[in-house]
Amino acid sequence: MSTVxxxxxxxxxxxxxxKGTTRRDGRATxxxxxRETVGEMRVEEPRMRCDEINxxxxxxxxxxxxxxDIGKNEVLAMIGPSGCGKSTFxxxxxxxxxxxxxxxxxxxxxxxxxxxxxxRIDVVPLRAQVGMVFQKPNPFPKSIYENIAFGxxxxxxxxxxxxxxxxxxxxxxxxxxxxxxKDRLDQxxxxxxxxxxxxxxxxxxxxxxxxxxxxxxxxxxxxxxxxAKVEELxxxxxxxxxxxxxxxxxxxxxxxxxxxxxxxxxxLIEVGDTKQIFTNPRHELTEDYITGRFG
Length: 295
Hints:
This protein has 295 residues and is α/β, with parallel strands linked by helices. 35% of the residues lie in helices and 25% in strands. The chain has helices at residues 3-15, 86-92, 123-129, 144-154, 161-174, 178-181, 194-206, 224-237, 250-256, 274-279, 284-290; strands at 21-22, 28-29, 38-39, 46-57, 60-71, 75-79, 103-111, 114-115, 130-133, 212-216, 242-246, 259-264, 267-273. The strands form 3 sheets. The protein has a 7-stranded mixed beta sheet, sandwiched between helices. Strands 5-4-7-8 form a 4-stranded antiparallel beta sheet, covered by helices on one side. Strands 1-2 form a two-stranded antiparallel ribbon. A hairpin with a 2-residue loop joins strand 7 (103-111) and strand 8 (114-115). Helix 4 packs across helix 5 (161-174).
């Protein structure tokens, strides 16, 4: 048989690949045409469970039938090209999409036996239990102390000034910021550096005792040194919290997360152990993205 014929047969075989087939290099792959999620969407100890989540912006179907668990004391990284739906999905988890006119969400998001999309759910305590850290640091135009105290005060978590002092100090310690600001708590939070402001926002989130922390590209506006500090903090925080982070940095996802979910054009394409996703992806679209063929 000629070399040309062997090459042609190999090409035909590759084009016919479907779910569960094996390529010539021995790695199981799923064809780019398959849109069903590959990998294990469920975990043994879920802190939050999402079932068949769909999101529309008007007539645009932005998220399609996404089911995914966020495990207890884990960091789940969500990656994918711009516009793939990862931030939209993240905002579903504490109903931040409620603030967007024309946005409609269906499906179940279970937390402590309750569907957070239920009309019975009060979003104010929900957003304390499922906190959010945004892309750009957004400290309040208040003192460092008041930035932290604001949430516990409106939620009634401190009954006297001593308790409030303890909450502020503990939150800043957990955010790795106490030693840098303990002597200037009365100064404006907006006067801190960008990295310090982001850690202040993380401390503000911690102060209301959340169970889950959502992070939407928390390091995209930070320099490498500030980014490293936030990444170290994320690893420490997962001992006490479940964390879901959206990031455009695949290196960051590999460093901070235990599980990774890859989104593409509104679909959850693949989810699994972070090491497996980055070293042996099962879906061709995942492999295309992490190898830089698009994104």
